[in-house]
Amino acid sequence: MQKPKALLLIAGFYFCYFAFNGLFSPYWGLYLAELSFPAWQIGILTSLTQINRIYAPALWGWLADRSGQRQKILRLAGVMGFVFFLPLLLTHSFWPLLISVWIASFFWSSALPLVEATSMTLLAGNSGAYARLRVWGSIGFVVAALLAGYLIEAFGVGVLPMAVVSVMAGLAIYSFYVPEAPVVAKNQLACVKFFDVLAKKEVRALLLTCFLMALAHGAYYSFYSIYMVELGYSKRVVAWLWALGVIAEIAVFWLMPSITQRFSLKKIFLWGLLLAVVRFMLIGVAADFIVLLIVAQLAHGFTFGSHHAVTMSYIHRHFSGAHQAKGQALNIAVSFGLGGSLGGILAGVLWAKGGAMVFMLSAGMALLGLGVAWLGINKNDL
């Protein structure tokens, strides 16, 4: 398959994959709140997709690298993710929802690292080129979040399950068209042992920083919409706040080739962490002021956009050859999986003490991540 066509199909996959996030992140918690689930159950149910990212990507990534059947595994993940999200149309009870979302996200979460490994191989690890490809995922998020926001405003949050199933159908279709990754030359296979890569100081520092950054975002992805509605903002305004953050992310993704030419990757990485500290402080203490909320959402371009692009480049550099899928899976497991799920669950447990306090704790986690990156990653490491 020609490279431009392959990248176009990957762009379509990204669009559908993150369109699902555009539905789940802003509205899943609101949907559960509408069903009168208590905060601790909302914390668990909103964290299931992240919990599966702790172990499912690593399992599937190891299987893909060992078997060389990345494309077949991706197709299985797409189809089974769609099938097991179908029960959302039928049940409103805690345990059936928990089982359905848990199994569905077990397959869904395995898809991304496989495609990320293919993308970075096709693009030779270029973070700027990757960012411009990955921007289609952000566009999918914005389109889904805005359309769902208007539909929910008009018809109620009960439309969410059908929207989720529709997007997952698109993802299942694209999973059959994402191309095979280029074949890895034999002299690149396992030239460095996987655990030797993990033994490197800079790799451990990066993974710990990514864990802390995802931990800081846990409350945002699980409770931001609930927090905004509690403060009196309409669901339409909440949709635009989510969209604004991802529009900023799109802008940063698109400008990454220019940004990486002017600044070292470490500087970009550290600025993202610093802005995360400021962002979560603003959400915690200044959420009554819409202008400051807008400023906080614009920071998402760096707290997620540049942070993710730099991390992807770094992971590709260190986890080369036969370790590509495992490296991408490990990054997702440690950050979005362990960090994101723990952040969401802790936010649910602490939510009764006040949203402002929870988001201030998020700022503290980002500050800790800033310290780890500052001390543990040298300029030449990124």
Care to describe what's here?
This protein starts with a helix and ends in a 6-residue tail after the last helix. About 2% of the residues have low confidence. It is mainly α and 382 residues long. 81% of the residues lie in helices and 0% in strands.
Question: What would the keywords be for this entry?
Answer:
single chain, about 375 residues, mainly alpha, about 0% strand, globular
Oligomer: single chain
Number of helices, where a helix is a run of at least 4 consecutive DSSP H or I residues: 14
Envelope shape:
globular
Beta-strand fraction estimate: under 5%
Helix-strand blueprint:
Blueprint: H1 3-34, H2 39-67, H3 70-85, H4 94-122, H5 127-155, H6 160-174, H7 194-198, H8 201-230, H9 235-262, H10 265-285, H11 290-298, H12 300-318, H13 324-350, H14 355-376
Helix pairs in contact: 1-2, 1-4, 1-5, 1-6, 1-8, 2-4, 2-8, 2-13, 3-4, 3-6, 4-13, 5-9, 5-12, 8-12, 8-13, 8-14, 9-11, 9-12, 10-11, 10-12, 10-14, 12-13
Task: Put the structure in a nutshell.
With 382 residues, the chain is mostly helical.
